[in-house]
Amino acid sequence: MAQRTVLVVLFDGVQSLDVSGPVEVFAGAEKHTPGTYRIHTASLDGAPVRTTSGLTLVPDRPLAEAPHPHTLLVPGGQGTRRPDPRLVDWVRERGPRAVRLVSVCTGAIVLARAGLLDGRRATTHWAYCDTLARNHPAVEVDPDPVYVRDGPVATSAGVTAGIDLALALVEEDLGRDVALTIARHLVVFLRRPGNQAQFSAQLAAQTARREPLREVQRWITEHPDGDLTVQSLAARARLSPRHFARAFRAETGMTPGRYVDRVRLEHARRLLEDTADGIEEISRASGYGTPEAMRRAFVTALGTAPAEYRRRFRPATTH
């Protein structure tokens, strides 16, 4: 098996966890299966860099002396807001030569400035998706997923999403068993599916200003198996269905139906991850009614059936 070189780009203002998270995953895989990964770090001039948290990272060498990478990883951080033009030029030149080009968090901004995301689907930290889309209209920015794969380019959301993406790459390279071992060691999920939302429904939706609507939001979350039709929810809020639907969307940023769909999906995911309950029982408890209805919802939202989701994404445990 050929050894894969992983090169991590460092710069002042880098987010330390964007670096250490993926590095720990690849280093863990190398310890488990020696000879699979060789990790290098490099900065523009080879000098130490200061992270956003104040930590100092010492690179192995200057970028000009860095080895040709199999996987080139560009982390995020405040230093990506106005990246050094020399860094962008280096990424523009060397990025296309890598077998895999990966960004964590706002590292996608550097890739976009280098023109390497044009015509591709990508994501970044939710707080910067609008900025990325506005400044780089040739990039198809998807603000929802944890990470996005588009050919040889992989972009991930904020901070811990870099760990999810790195685990997915290790699984791709070395198989699920190795990725599972690394996840257990790090005490994390094997990996969250890439198209899982960055936010839960409660975080993705704004909290309504009016108490009746806030109460409806709480009711939905606490009773995913209840009658959550617009008519029933409107009656709970003491509003007409039309007025309720319009007010709910105006104050939360999503329709009642979309909010209910997200809550039910999250509830079912948690039961699949945390319990041994059967699929039929979970489908009823989550408001789907039947396993087939839940299966359709999972395939549409996550690209996988509930049973497969449980097999692949249940949290690893340590002993």
Could you give the topology of this structure?
Layout: E1 4-9, H1 16-32, E2 37-43, E3 49-50, E4 56-57, E5 61-62, E6 71-74, H2 85-94, E7 100-103, H3 107-113, E8 121-122, H4 129-135, E9 140-141, E10 147-150, E11 153-156, H5 161-174, H6 176-186, H7 201-204, H8 211-222, H9 230-237, H10 241-252, H11 256-274, H12 279-285, H13 291-302, H14 306-313
Parallel strand pairs: 1-2, 1-6, 2-5, 6-7, 7-11, 8-9
Antiparallel strand pairs: 3-4, 10-11
The CATH superfamily of the largest domain is known as Class I glutamine amidotransferase (GATase) domain
Distance between the termini: 30 Å
* Helix content range: 40-55%
Determine the strand fraction and express it as a percent band. 5-15%
Whole-number mean pLDDT: 89
**N-to-C series of helices and strands:** EHEEEEEHEHEHEEEHHHHHHHHHH
The backbone outline, from C-alpha atoms, is globular
Q: How many domains is the backbone divided into?
A: 2
CATH architecture of the largest domain: 3-Layer(aba) Sandwich
CATH topology-level name of the largest domain: Rossmann fold
Number of strands: 11
Q: Give me the Rg, rounded.
A: 22 Å
Strand order of the largest sheet: 5-2-1-6-7-11-10
Tally of contiguous helical segments = 14
Q: Which class of the largest domain in CATH terms?
A: Alpha Beta
Structural class: alpha/beta
Keywords: Transcription, Transcription regulation
Organism: Streptomyces bullii
InterPro entries: Class_I_gatase-like, DJ-1/PfpI, Homeodomain-like_sf, HTH_AraC, INH-QAR
Protein name: GlxA family transcriptional regulator
